[in-house]
Design a protein that fits this description.
Layout (H helix, E strand, L loop, with lengths): L8 H12 L3 E3 L2 E3 L5 E3 L9 H17 L5 E3 L2 H20 L5 E10 L4 E13 L3 E3 L1 H11 L2 H23 L5 E5 L2 H4 L4 H12 L6 E6 H6 L1 H12 L4 E7 L16 E4 L1 H4 L6 H16 L3 E5 L4 H9 L4 E3 L9 H10 L12 H4 L4 H4 L3
Parallel strand pairs: 3-4, 6-8, 8-9, 9-10, 10-11, 11-12, 12-13
Antiparallel strand pairs: 1-2, 5-6, 5-13, 6-7
Helix pairs in contact: 3-4, 5-7
Length: 365
Amino acid sequence: MVLKRPPTPCILSNVWKVSLKEPISLTDRKVFTSASIGIAVSNASYTQPEEILRDADIARYHAKTAGKARHQFFNQSMHEHANSRLQLETEMHTAIDNQEFCLYYQPIVELKSRRIIGFESLVRWQHPERGLIPPDDFIPIAEDSGLIVPLGEWIQRESCRQLTVWQQQQANSELTISVNLSCKQFLQNDLAEKVAEILRETRLAPEFLRLEVTESNVMNDSKLAIKILDSLRLLGVKLSIDDFGTGYSSLSYLHRLPINYLKIDRSFIGEMCTNHENIEIVRTILMLADSLGIEVVAEGIETDDQLRQFINLECKNGQGFFFSKPVPPAKIDLLFDTVSSAIITNPDKNIIKSLNIPALLIESI
């Protein structure tokens, strides 16, 4: 492309992006590429070339996280954000050894009987100075740095250990625990061996562990995903697809995936009461799953209307704030100590409140 005047950074960036849209021929295939571009404007504050390159790279990272195939100008707030991320990453290296991470548990409920059938474990960071840090603030850093792998192993081990304790205390060997696998964990060559080792250490029967992978992780390379899922299923653990429904290409592969459960993405559930199309999509997913012998969990149920809709659609299991927010294990212990059978008798109330649990249990929920 010929430019009639010196290009501005925006013009130059757009020229590059247009050029990169053209496919590249590799043998008998065409490969499509895109670029995330960071721009740093020179000024008197820069004294070394490395400094402006550093800031351009920070801007590039923001362009990438904002959606890719775009450009982003550097500003000082990005530098402060980068420093904050670097500080958190540094602190995460010692946080596991210092036992700063903890798990919260959200009940998974049999919708018709309101009976708790299991839990999903969700990690939190109890920072000694910053207090409780939500996962959205540190999981992306863990993913980028690779720390998600040792953190994920700790989550699996602690989740299995905790469920073993609850099964022994409640004489209920049917409770299950659902644990999320990150993309980097899922692609580890020795994933099955590590899961088997954790099951042996915690003495948890494999059928009570549900490993959840996102739909996008599976569809990135479906052949490899099937191979990994097969190796996990040979252990006897149950497998679940999380956030199902966001990638329609997976519908054609669903019958090939060796899975036991799928979780309907909460984006469909939130608008079910006002969007008829969402209801029909959910109905289709439920019918397809039933024909393949796959159980469905509705994730993100927050209202009585949503609960009743899923019961009418014959969805068996669900979870969400309607029943309970994620809570620390001590509050689950108190729940089990207060009632002999965790059943929601009043569908219009939060699960904890409907069981008349003391205020201690619902504090901070």
